Amino acid sequence: MIKVEGLTKSFGRQAVLRELTIEVATGTITIIIGRSGGGKSVFLKHLIGLMRPDAGRITVDGVEITRLRGRALDEVRRTYGVVFQGGALFDSMSCWDNVAFPLREKVRTPRDELVKRVEAALGQVGLEGVGAKYPAEISGGMRKRVAIARALVTEPEIIFFDEPTTGLDPVLVNTIHHLILDLHRRFRFTAVVVSHEIPEIFEIAETVAMLHEGRIVEIGPPAAIQASTNPVVQRFIRGEADNSEER
């Protein structure tokens, strides 16, 4: 589904992505892990098409999106759903209208169909009857669910999750992870998840990729990553400081 080859990006003299290469298979859950400030969100923005690389290319379902502009890029994005870090809900809109937003803006859905799909999306995340409330009136975990419903409502082929459990307590982290897993089993979308939730995230991953200093330094099933002999991977999993970075 997604093939990234030699992706390179710098901001001034700071190299963020260094010839990053990875493939994401159709219908799988791929988790991107790595230290804060290591380029995970920048990488995700390239996949979504919000940033352009200095070099390299990204191919989505056979289409090289790094060459696309305007409507051609928008057509690829119609197959995407995005769950932004923090949810990124519109505070001035009800939860129902937040979920309806991409159908109104991107798809121009007829009213009857729009109502049906919004109600279905809210039901899929366990929020029946919550649509009339505003984001400030619901809990953090419920806001995350609204954000996931908004990503689901267009029936995307690919959903990108940027730190979907940031700010939640351990119980809610587990709840959201298993919601993602349950939805994935039902709808079989391709999922790319940026996360720092170690080791909890290993429970839902099919593939885990460790991003370090702008490169994928290890990739494989969760068990293989946990058993890795790479010291960079092991220090991250154990939450240990890298002594070379402290000097």
What is this entry, summarized?
The protein is α/β, with parallel strands linked by helices and 247 residues long. It has helices spanning 40-48, 70-77, 95-107, 111-124, 140-152, 170-187, 222-226, 231-238, 243-246; strands spanning 2-11, 14-24, 29-33, 55-60, 63-64, 80-83, 158-162, 190-194, 207-212, 215-220.
List keywords for this structure.
alpha/beta; Rossmann fold; 247 residues; 2 domains; 24% strand
Can you put this structure into words, describing what you see?
It contains nine helices and ten strands. With 247 residues, it is of the alpha/beta class. It folds into two domains: 168 residues, Rossmann fold, CATH 3.40.50.300; 69 residues, no CATH class. Strands 6-7-8-3-9-10 form a six-stranded mixed sheet. A four-stranded antiparallel sheet has the order 2-1-4-5, with helices on one face. α5 packs parallel to α6. The chain is globular. The model has no long low-confidence stretch (mean pLDDT 91).
Draw up the topology in text:
Elements: E1 2-11, E2 14-24, E3 29-33, H1 40-48, E4 55-60, E5 63-64, H2 70-77, E6 80-83, H3 95-107, H4 111-124, H5 140-152, E7 158-162, H6 170-187, E8 190-194, E9 207-212, E10 215-220, H7 222-226, H8 231-238, H9 243-246
Parallel strand pairs: 3-8, 3-9, 6-7, 7-8
Antiparallel strand pairs: 1-2, 1-4, 4-5, 9-10
